[in-house]
């Protein structure tokens, strides 16, 4: 379980508080207006930005001061962070061992990730030889091989067209269900969020609200939600 315990984030004039827990294995959409602090919230959970006060807990253990690389979290960002001089297979293998010295078991994990993300036969291609959707699949496969129980996705598919975004958000959800990972995805697209998530964390007016189901949000929308979705 991920718990944000009396968390307070301050960045200049910006303030954001959070006090909630997420059940293990849940898929959560982080929604809210631009500038509300959605990406900042993920940065704090991932360890890239320190909160002013409060704690980040994973399975009851305080990880607030733990370095990003030592947290049980994998990250997927909008730019995919693929190395252009490496093949798709090498980019995925980096998720297991940065020195690329893979055991037989490691190589099998890379192959399994290729198959799970629909990339079979593309391992020798460089990122420049792949489409935008294929590059996103490589980045998702690298998350998959890391086998971290917490996955943070910060608008990872926003550069793709609507059809490809829907395909990738559905695939990300399937990957999370397969691995049992807890997944949080920042999105500005309601359809993407609905295809991905079973719970919503609404971020607005300095508060990241506790997760609720879509039905709960629609029945009792938080302030600003109706304007956000356009009805």
Automatic annotation (TrEMBL):
SUPFAM superfamilies: P-loop containing nucleoside triphosphate hydrolases. The keyword Nucleotide-binding applies. Keywords: ATP-binding, Cell inner membrane, Cell membrane, Membrane, Nucleotide-binding, Translocase, Transport. The keyword Membrane applies. Pfam families: ABC_tran. SMART domains: AAA. PROSITE patterns: ABC_TRANSPORTER_1, ABC_TRANSPORTER_2. GO terms for molecular function: ATP binding; ATP hydrolysis activity. PANTHER family: SPERMIDINE/PUTRESCINE IMPORT ATP-BINDING PROTEIN POTA, THIAMINE IMPORT ATP-BINDING PROTEIN THIQ. This is Thiamin ABC transporter, ATPase component / Thiamine transport ATP-binding protein thiQ.
